[in-house]
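hiii so my PI (J.) wants the whole complex modelled not just the main chain, which honestly fair. so below is everything: two entries, each one labled with what it is. i double checked the lines twice but i was tired so who knows lol
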Amino acid sequence: MSYLKERILEEGVIYPGNVLKIDSFLNHQIDPGVMKEIEKEFYDHFSDRRITKIMTVEASGIAPAIMVAAHFDVPMLFAKKKKPSTLKAEEAYTAEVYSYTKQTTSTVMVPKDYLNKEDAVLIIDDFLANGEASMGLVQIVRDAGAKVAGIGICVEKSFQPGRERLEKEGLDVYSIVRIESIDSKNQEIKFKEGH
Amino acid sequence: MSYLKERILEEGVIYPGNVLKIDSFLNHQIDPGVMKEIEKEFYDHFSDRRITKIMTVEASGIAPAIMVAAHFDVPMLFAKKKKPSTLKAEEAYTAEVYSYTKQTTSTVMVPKDYLNKEDAVLIIDDFLANGEASMGLVQIVRDAGAKVAGIGICVEKSFQPGRERLEKEGLDVYSIVRIESIDSKNQEIKFKEGH
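here's the output for the full assembly
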């Protein structure tokens, strides 16, 4: 069993509404040992794609994204949820991202300066559920005339439609861990084979 | 001249109100080469302190903090600005942080589970100006009965009172770059000697 599955089984807590909390090593407290395994696995899968940039959304995607960027030795770019005071609206690529948990839509943005037509972008995120954040990033990359070289996800909730939506766009999604089902009553997690 | 000073002079843009934008390599797009230099410099300075944890505030502190954590091989913990739905109020350490640019106060929090009395915490942040975020983290570490082993800052605005406030608390502040003054009219930056 992989390092990430082991940690999920040991430390994951399941809440009603398919919420899996793995805050102790992935997205509040972060174990650099887990990050090193993650960056290596993504590198092994995506290293032949001539990646020029790693991209994610703040905040919980930043840690895996910068570690992956360091492994590929390319810049990491994260979309912000609030427009910095120094960034004019016309200087940014933006996308609307709907949050199913919060039931609100927010705008994410990156400065136009940091993406160009020659870029082959690897999108990295901690979780994939409905795929809203990833779809927003895909739209931004395409608005810039750049190419999405792949999408690397730490933990995919395979019972939610995110992966299907991304694959319909012709994208290569690689998830380190795929979860088939979670059961809050019995605190039971079933993994799905493959990546 | 150090790598970080060079990049600031080459790519930094100054806006009125002492705003220095170095988004192209430090806190929107992030250059992993700069991160590797930063993590090494902090390690060289703080490696004798028996650091058990690296701590920062979301979002722009996360990238340097996880890189430093990987170098020290200890967990990284970041304070969140919004309470996760899975975290009860009594399960978190909190601190109020005032933002001078936004003129608003926000509450930052970390789960109590992730700090304990034995921890020696190195606080990492991208910028130090008025010191509000760092002071909030110091309070949280002390509330947990843990020790602040030091504060590592990428870019310090030495003409603002953050460093003085932290040193009054008896804390060791190490800044990779110290800025003595910035002049938006002439786009001129003066560095201050030392760390």
